[in-house]
Each structure stands twice: as C-alpha cells, then as structure tokens.
Amino acid sequence: MARRALVAVLWTGATALALSACETQDDEAALTRETPVITEEEPARVEPVVEERLTPRPDLFSLQDEAIWDGRPSLGGAWIAHPDVGNPERVEVTDVTSGQSITAALFRREAGLPGPVFQLSADAAQELGAEPGVPLEVEVIAVRPEVVDVADDAAEGDAEEAESNAAEVEDAVDVVAEGEAAAAAVDEAAAPADDEAAEVELASDEAAIAEIAAAIVAAPDPEPAIEAAAPAVEEAEAPQPVAEAVAPAPAAAPDTPFMQVGMFGVPGNAEALVERLQAEGLAARALPAGSLTRVVVGPAESDAELAETRQRLRELGFSDAIAISL
C-alpha cells in the first residue's frame, strides 16, 4: 500500500517537471518569434562626379616665338609645327598680342626653312585670327588631360564665394551707415538755410506779381498788334522754292578689297599664276609677303565687284581664295 503511494507521488512529480520543461521551451520559442532582428543598413555609395581637364605641362614643351600661316589650305585640323619637336603633343597656343588661346596638336617640321620657326595650319590660323603671310608672336605650352573631382572643386568654389559675399555684405552695411550719418548731418545743416530760402522765394513771388499787375494795367489795346502781325503771317505762308534733288552717294569700297589666290615660296610660280589670271581678264599682281610671294586680284571698288571677282575665281578653280586688305 505504501509502495503504491510512493509510486504515485514520483509519477506526479515527473509529470510536473515534464510540463514545466515544455512550457519553458514554448516561452523561448514565442520570444524568438516575436523579437524582430534589427540590422544596420549600409549607407548608399555615392559615385564621385569627375571630368577631364587639360593641365599645363611646361616641363614637356614651352616656347614663345613667331609663327606664320602661308595662306594655303591644310589638312588635320588645328596644328602647329616646330623643328625641335620629338614626339607629337597636345598644346595650348596663345596669341601674345590679343590673348586668344586655342588647343592644337604639335608636330615636327623640317629644320632650316626660312621664316618664323613655328608653322600654323589653316584651321589654327583662322581660330587665332592670323592673316596669311603675317607673323604673330605665340606662346606654346604642352598640356595633358587630368581627371578632376567636380564635387571638390564646386565645394571649394562655394566656400570662396560665401567668403566673398560675406565681405561684400559687411562693406555694404558700413557704406549704408556712413551714408545715413552723412545725410543726417546735411539735413541738420540745411534746415536754417531752407527757411531763409523760403522767405526769399516768397518775397520774390510777391514782387513778380506786382510787376505783372502793373504791366497789365499799362498794356495798350492789342488790336493794332494783331493787324501788324498779319503781313508777317502772309509772308510765312508764301511758297518756298523746292530744293534740288541730291545725287546719291557712291557705294563705299569694301573693307577687304583684294582677293588672295595663293602664297608661294618660289617667286616664279607666283608670276606664272599672275600671267594666267591676267589672261582671263583679272587684275592680278604679285606682292612680297615676308619670305613668301602673295598673288592677289583687285582692288574691288564695291562689294558687288568683290563678289563678282570671287565667283570668277571659283569658276577658274580657285575656290579657296579669300578676301583680304593690304
């Protein structure tokens, strides 16, 4: 009997422990399900904004000297050539007189040629505003591309602009304060003078009214004056002689009255071209241009004549002829 009671007690205790363990596992599972897992998100990566810029590299090539364009068309775009160039480079060419700058290619040219050491292509000369056969002083510096972060440059520029704006605001405030103080001082000094001026003006007005009243009383009958004025009106209404027609002014000569046909290093070639153009009825001639010889047609006395000469040269095959002034 006692043994059965002991077995019942042990069974009851084991059952209670098992139920307790199950409840503990259920609570842990519930906590695991209900508790959210918090993870930190990585910040979005911002790609830098960059651009390519040309940076001066005088260590590669830098020279200031005279350059010239021979007036002939050329291929290859804008370029400049020098006898001391080893490898082709990208350069910045600046006209020292005008300050005009262009980016061009730098090539090697044959050494020992007469004239300036730099030779310009047709495109480079046109961008610089160079005249054919006329030397100009240029500065040539090599440049290389460099990748620059635009955001950094913009931040530096914004900071400098903010400092400049703050300084301008402070200066403006000081100027306004000084102006207000000066205006107050002028108002205080001018107050007595304004009162005296008002009194003088009032006295002047009273004297003027008295003079006008006296003149009205003493004025004669206006009818004779009207009768005397009648002949003057009749004379004014008399017809005036018609002016003679003015002859129209002659057309002004163009600013560039000559058409340049070519530039030659051999004078004999220039003379041969002059003879050919003269045989076609054109007023051609050869003129010296430094170490070269220039062949031109003209001068034209009007824009219409210049256009006619240009069309005639195109018909003869000289489509690259340009208008110049001598």
From TrEMBL:
Domain SPOR as annotated: residue spans: 251-326
What is any one GO biological process for this UniProt entry?
cytokinetic process
Signal sequence, renumbered to the chain: 1-20
Record keywords, A-Z: Signal
Q: Name one GO cellular component term.
A: cell division site
SUPFAM superfamilies found in the cross-reference section: Sporulation related repeat (SSF110997)
* GO terms assigned for molecular function: peptidoglycan binding
Pfam families named among the record's database cross-references = SPOR
Give the protein name, as stated in the record.
SPOR domain-containing protein
The source organism is Pontivivens ytuae
